[in-house]
Amino acid sequence: MSQPPPDAYTSGRRLNVLSAIRKRRSIRSFLERDVAESDVRRILECGTLAPSAGNLQPWQFVVVRDQQRKAALARAAYDQMFIAEAPVVIVVLADQSRSASVYGRRGLELYAIQDTAAAIQNMLLAACEMGYGTCWVGAFDEDSVAEIVKAGRGTKPVAVIPVGYPRYTPAATRRRRLSEVIHEETYQS
């Protein structure tokens, strides 16, 4: 069996998504070391490869490097100041109006959020594979974050993602056993 040709994502090496899933952690402390613009673009491009309802791709990404703006985002995230420590912060917005234009209320309330969540997970795994640490921050004041990044009308902040080289990597957290979460045919509590 022949190997697939190298592409822009792997730079000639084979990615192992299962490994990235297992080694990804929420990183809340970063080294004072910059993230290359080309790497940020690769991470964002991986986000754009996520599936989306009707292929509408309702995501928007705001890349923040300005220290004052990062500090404002950290304060808007209920003083999670580690956000400001990262060299790059990506604010992921859901363009709800884009999804609603085809799917109405369900697009507005569900599909736009699901689609951006898929993009976020792609970015977290890509960053992990590239040696970066990230944290999916969802605890923040939406209005404040929207104002800080000047989010357009019809867009909703879904995540604030600090990206950088981890100062340390925490141990894996306990996960529920499969027997606790799998149900056959119907859900029974």
What does this structure look like?
The chain is an alpha+beta fold and 189 residues long. The protein contains seven helices and four strands; from the N terminus they run ααβααβαβαβα. It has helices spanning 17-23, 37-48, 67-76, 82-85, 96-129, 142-148, 178-181, and strands at residues 59-64, 88-95, 133-134, 155-164. The termini are far apart.
Please write out the topology.
Layout (H helix, E strand, L loop, with lengths): L16 H7 L13 H12 L10 E6 L2 H10 L5 H4 L2 E8 H34 L3 E2 L7 H7 L6 E10 L13 H4 L8
Antiparallel strand pairs: 1-2, 2-4, 3-4
Helix pairs in contact: 1-5, 2-5, 3-6
Indicate the mean pLDDT.
93
| SSE string | HHEHHEHEHEH
CATH homologous superfamily of the domain at 45-165, by name?
A: NADH Oxidase
Helix content: 40-55%
Question: How are the strands of the biggest sheet laid out side by side?
Answer: 1-2-4-3
What percentage of amino acids are in beta strands?
5-15%
Taking the sheet with the most strands, its summary is: 4 strands, antiparallel
Helix-and-strand structural type: alpha+beta
Notable characteristics:
4 strands, 7 helices, alpha+beta, NADH Oxidase, single chain, 189 residues, 14% strand
Give a quick precis of the structure.
With 189 residues, the chain is of the alpha+beta class. It has helices spanning 17-23, 37-48, 67-76, 82-85, 96-129, 142-148, 178-181, and strands at 59-64, 88-95, 133-134, 155-164. Strands 1-2-4-3 form a four-stranded antiparallel sheet, with helices on both faces.
